C-alpha cells in the first residue's frame, strides 16, 4: 500500500468531522475526487506523481526507468520544480533560509527566482513532511483547496450546495490546473476562486477588505505572481460589472485589500522585483507574432476534444502550441449545462458578470486582435503570458454549469436543445477539420469515443429537461460522478506516476562527481540542469525563466542564449569555461571528448567524465595567481576566504555577482566589486587575513518589515466589514 493513502484518508476524515455541516459534502466529494485523480500514483506502493521517467531518455539516467511512462511536456517539473523543492526542503531543515542557489548558473538567487515560493504554506508543509508523503499530499491539497473554493464561489452566486459540486470539479480537474498541478503555479491557481469569493462577500457586506488582503497575500506568496495579477484583473472586471460598482467605497476597499496583499508578500516580492528587473527576460520582453485567425478559431475545439492534437504523455502530441499552456477541457457535460446556465439565469447580474469574464478570458487567452494589443500596452500586464487566462475559462464554465444543472433539475432548462445542437455542430466541425489528420496519424479512436460520449450526454440532457427532478439527491451526485470520470479520463495521465526510488537516482557517474567543489558541465542535455542541485553538484549551466542579464552576456560567449529556456554549451574551447572553474565535463559513455586535451577521469555504463586541467580555481587573485589564497564554501550563499600575500590585492570568487552579496574583513564591512563583469571581487590590504562573504536578497529586510506591517494591517482590517446590503439573486 502506498503510505500516503492512509494519511489522505485520515485528513479527509478529520476534515469531514471538523467542518461545519454545510461544508461536509464538498469536503468529502473533493477529497474523493483528488484521490481518484491521483489514483495512478496511489496504486503504486512507492508511487509519487512525477514526469521524471522522461529523463531516462538521456544519460546518466538511461535505462533507470521507462521513458514512455513520463511526460516530456512537463520537463520543467523534472528539471526545475522538483529540484527546487528538494533544495528548499534541505535548506530549511538545516535551519537556513534558502537565499542563494550555488548549483546553477554559477550561482543564482533562489529566494527571488519567482517560483521557489519559500513562504507558501503548502511548501512549508512539504518541508515538514517526509518526502514520499510530501510529493503526494502537495497536489492532493491543491485539488481540495481549489475545489472547495470554486464550490464556495458557486454558493456565493446563489447556486444550491449539490449543484455547486460541478464547479468544484470543473476548475481543479479542468485542463489548465490539472496541467500545472505539479507547478507552484497551482499554489496560486487554487486560491483564485477564494479571492473572487471574498470580493463578492465584501460587496455584499459579509466580508472585509482585510480578508481579501490575507487571501490575496497568500496567493502572492504561492510562487506565481502572474496568476495573482490575472486574478486581480478578473476581480476588478467582475466588480465593475456589478450594480454595486457605482459605490466608490467598494472600490476603495477592493484596492486597499490588494495593496495590503502586496505588502504582505513584500518579503518575497521586493527581492523578486530586483531580480526580475536585472534579468534577461525583462530586458528582452517581446510582443511576439500573433497567430493566424484560422488557427486561433480552431483552438476552442479543445473544449470538446481534449485530445484534439493527441497527448504528450502518450508520445503522440502534434499540436501547434504547448499542450499545458493551451489545455482547456472542463468536461462535455459542463459545456452543456453552462449553456443552460447562460440562458436560464440571464436575470442574475452576478452570473451575467461571470459570462462576461468567460468571454474576456477566451478572447485574451487566444490573443484575439484588438484585446491583445490593449493587454500588451498595459504596464506590467504587457510582459505577461495571457494564454494562462484559460484558467478563468475553466472556472467560469464550471460556475455557469452549476447554475445550469440547478435549473435543469428544477425543469427550468431553457436552452437544452440549443446546447445539444451547438455541441453537435462543434463535433461535426471538428471531424470535418481534423478527421483526416486523426486517420492519418491513427488517432481517431479517442476523438470517436469522446464523440459518442458527447452524443449520449446531449440526448440525456434534452430528454431529462422535460422531467421535474425536484430535490433528488441522486441527480447532482450522479452528474458530479460522471464529470469526475470525464475529467479523470481526459487529464489524469498528464501527471504520471513514478516509483520514488527512480526520482533522480544516484548513478556511478553521479557518485564520482559528488563531493567535488569544482564546477561541472554536460555535453548537450547530459545531466540536464537543474538536476545537479539534487546531487550537490555545481553546474555552470542552469534552467530558469528568470536569468541574470549579467550572466547571460557571459554564457552566450560559449553557449546558446535564451531569456526563457535552457541552452547547451556549444564552444568547449572558450576561455570562459576556465575562468568559471569548469573542471568536470560529463558526456554519453560512447562519445569522444570535445577537446583532445581533456583527460578521461571516469568511464561507466551511464556516462563518461572528462577532466579539464585548464580550469582555474574558484578562488584566486585578480591577476590570475592563486598562490596564497584559499576558499571554503561554508553553505549556500556563504564563503570564507583566507589570504597570505605581501600587500594584499583583489580576491576573486568565480560566483555570479548580485547586489545581495556583502563581505567583511576582520568584522569590518568592505564592498563587493564586480570583476570581469560577473565575478565577486574583494579588495584586501595587509599581508594576511580572512574574508567572510554572505548573500542576502536585496530589499529582504525592508520587505520583511513591510510584510509584517501588511500582516498586522490585514488582521486589523478583519474587523472592518462593509455594511450588509441586500443584493438581487
Biggest beta-sheet profile: 5 strands, mixed
Distance between the termini: 48 Å
Strand percent estimate: 5-15%
Overall pLDDT metric: 92
Radius of gyration: 27 Å
Q: Please, how many domains?
A: 3
Overall number of strands: 18
**Helix fraction by DSSP (H/I, runs of at least 4):** 40-55%
What structural class should be given to the helix and strand makeup?
A: alpha+beta
Shape: globular
Count of alpha/pi helices: 29
Low-confidence stretches: 724-729
- The strand line-up of the biggest sheet is 6-5-7-9-8
Which structural traits does this protein have?
about 725 residues, alpha+beta, 3 domains, five-stranded mixed beta sheet, five-stranded antiparallel beta sheet, about 50% helix, disordered C terminus
Draw up the topology in text.
Blueprint: H1 4-18, H2 21-37, H3 39-42, E1 47-49, H4 75-93, E2 100-101, E3 108-109, H5 121-128, H6 131-156, H7 165-170, H8 175-179, H9 185-189, H10 192-204, H11 209-220, H12 225-240, H13 248-264, H14 266-277, H15 280-283, H16 293-298, H17 323-326, H18 332-344, H19 349-365, H20 371-377, H21 390-409, H22 416-440, H23 445-464, H24 474-491, E4 497-499, H25 508-513, E5 519-522, H26 531-535, E6 538-539, H27 549-555, H28 575-579, E7 582-587, E8 599-603, E9 608-611, E10 619-621, E11 629-635, E12 638-644, E13 649-653, E14 661-665, E15 668-670, E16 673-675, E17 679-684, E18 688-695, H29 700-717
Parallel strand pairs: 5-6, 5-7
Antiparallel strand pairs: 1-4, 2-3, 7-9, 8-9, 10-13, 11-12, 12-18, 13-17, 14-15, 14-18, 16-17
Helix pairs in contact: 1-2, 2-6, 4-5, 5-6, 6-10, 6-21, 10-11, 10-12, 11-13, 11-29, 12-19, 13-29, 14-29, 18-21, 18-22, 18-23, 19-21, 22-23
Amino acid at each position: 500500500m502506498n503510505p500516503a493513502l492512509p494519511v489522505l484518508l485520515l485528513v479527509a476524515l478529520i476534515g469531514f468531522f471538523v467542518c461545519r455541516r454545510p461544508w461536509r459534502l464538498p469536503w468529502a466529494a473533493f477529497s474523493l475526487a483528488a484521490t481518484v485523480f491521483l489514483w495512478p500514483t496511489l496504486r503504486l506502493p512507492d508511487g509519487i506523481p512525477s514526469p521524471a521517467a522522461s529523463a531516462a531518455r538521456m544519460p546518466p539516467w538511461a535505462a533507470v526507468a521507462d521513458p514512455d511512462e513520463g511526460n516530456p511536456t512537463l520537463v520543467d517539473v523534472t528539471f526545475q520544480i522538483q529540484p527546487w523543492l528538494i533544495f528548499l526542503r534541505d535548506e530549511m531543515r538545516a535551519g537556513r533560509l534558502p537565499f542563494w542557489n550555488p548549483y546553477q548558473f554559477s550561482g543564482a538567487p533562489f529566494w527571488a527566482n519567482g517560483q521557489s515560493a519559500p513562504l507558501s504554506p503548502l511548501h512549508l508543509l512539504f518541508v515538514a513532511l517526509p518526502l514520499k508523503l510530501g510529493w503526494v499530499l502537495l497536489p492532493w491539497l491543491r485539488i481540495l483547496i481549489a475545489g472547495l473554493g470554486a464550490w464556495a464561489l458557486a454558493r456565493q452566486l446563489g447556486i444550491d450546495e449539490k449543484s455547486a459540486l460541478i464547479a468544484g470539479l470543473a476548475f481543479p480537474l479542468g485542463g489548465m490546473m490539472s496541467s500545472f498541478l505539479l507547478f507552484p503555479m497551482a499554489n496560486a491557481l487554487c486560491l483564485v476562486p477564494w479571492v473572487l469569493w471574498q470580493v463578492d462577500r465584501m460587496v455584499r457586506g459579509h466580508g472585509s477588505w482585510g480578508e481579501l488582503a490575507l487571501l490575496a497575500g497568500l496567493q502572492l506568496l504561492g510562487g506565481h505572481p502572474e496568476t495573482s495579477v490575472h486574478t486581480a484583473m478578473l476581480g476588478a472586471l467582475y466588480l465593475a460589472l456589478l450594480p454595486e460598482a457605482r459605490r466608490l467605497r467598494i472600490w476603495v476597499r477592493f484596492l486597499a485589500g490588494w495593496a495590503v496583499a502586496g505588502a504582505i508578500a513584500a518579503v518575497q516580492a521586493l527581492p523578486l522585483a530586483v531580480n526580475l528587473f536585472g534579468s534577461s527576460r525583462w530586458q528582452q520582453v517581446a510582443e511576439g507574432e500573433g497567430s493566424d485567425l484560422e488557427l486561433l478559431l480552431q483552438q476552442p475545439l479543445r473544449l470538446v476534444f481534449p485530445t484534439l492534437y493527441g497527448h504528450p504523455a502518450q508520445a503522440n502530441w502534434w499540436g501547434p502550441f504547448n499542450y499545458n499552456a493551451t489545455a482547456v477541457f472542463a468536461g462535455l457535460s459542463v459545456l452543456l449545462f453552462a449553456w443552460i446556465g447562460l440562458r436560464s439565469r440571464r436575470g442574475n447580474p452576478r452570473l451575467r458578470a461571470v459570462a462576461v469574464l468567460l468571454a474576456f478570458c477566451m478572447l485574451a487567452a487566444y490573443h484575439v486582435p484588438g484585446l491583445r494589443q490593449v493587454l500588451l500596452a498595459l504596464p506590467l500586464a504587457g510582459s505577461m503570458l495571457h494564454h494562462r487566462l484559460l484558467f478563468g475559462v475553466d472556472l467560469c464554465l464550471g460556475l455557469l454549469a452549476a447554475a445550469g444543472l440547478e435549473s435543469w433539475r428544477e425543469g427550468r432548462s431553457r436552452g437544452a436543445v440549443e446546447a445539444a445542437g451547438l455541441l453537435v455542430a462543434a463535433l461535426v466541425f471538428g471531424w470535418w477539420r481534423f478527421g483526416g489528420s486523426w486517420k492519418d496519424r491513427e488517432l481517431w479512436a479517442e476523438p470517436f469515443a469522446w464523440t459518442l460520449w458527447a452524443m449520449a450526454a446531449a440526448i440525456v440532457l434534452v430528454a431529462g429537461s422535460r422531467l421535474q427532478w425536484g430535490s433528488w439527491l441522486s441527480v447532482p451526485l450522479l452528474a458530479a460522478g460522471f464529470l469526475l470520470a470525464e475529467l479523470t479520463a481526459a487529464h489524469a495521465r498528464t501527471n504520471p506516476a513514478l516509483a520514488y526510488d527512480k526520482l533522480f537516482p544516484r548513478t556511478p557517474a553521479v557518485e564520482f562527481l559528488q563531493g567535488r567543489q569544482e564546477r561541472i558541465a554536460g555535453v548537450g542535455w547530459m545531466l540536464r540542469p537543474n538536476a545537479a542541485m539534487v546531487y550537490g553538484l555545481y553546474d555552470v549551466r542552469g534552467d530558469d525563466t528568470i536569468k541574470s542579464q549579467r550572466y547571460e552576456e557571459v554564457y552566450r560567449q560559449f553557449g546558446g542564449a535564451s531569456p526563457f529556456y535552457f541552452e547547451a554549451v556549444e564552444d568547449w574551447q572558450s576561455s570562459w569555461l576556465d575562468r568559471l572553474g569548469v573542471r568536470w565535463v560529463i558526456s554519453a559513455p560512447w562519445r569522444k571528448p570535445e577537446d583532445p586535451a581533456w583527460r578521461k577521469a571516469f568511464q561507466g555504463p551511464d556516462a563518461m567524465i572528462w577532466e579539464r586541467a585548464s580550469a582555474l580555481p574558484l578562488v584566486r587573485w585578480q591577476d590570475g595567481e592563486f598562490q596564497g589564497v584559499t576558499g571554503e564554501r561554508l553553505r549556500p550563499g556563504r564563503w570564507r576566504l583566507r589570504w597570505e600575500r605581501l600587500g594584499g590585492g583583489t580576491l576573486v570568487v568565480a560566483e555570479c555577482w548580485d547586489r545581495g552579496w556583502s563581505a567583511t574583513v576582520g568584522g569590518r564591512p568592505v564592498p563587493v566589486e564586480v570583476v570581469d563583469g560577473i565575478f565577486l571581487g574583494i579588495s584586501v590590504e595587509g599581508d594576511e587575513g580572512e574574508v567572510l562573504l554572505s548573500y542576502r536578497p536585496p530589499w529582504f529586510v525592508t520587505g520583511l518589515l513591510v510584510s509584517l506591517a501588511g500582516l498586522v494591517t490585514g488582521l486589523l482590517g478583519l474587523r472592518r466589514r462593509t455594511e450588509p446590503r441586500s443584493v438581487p439573486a
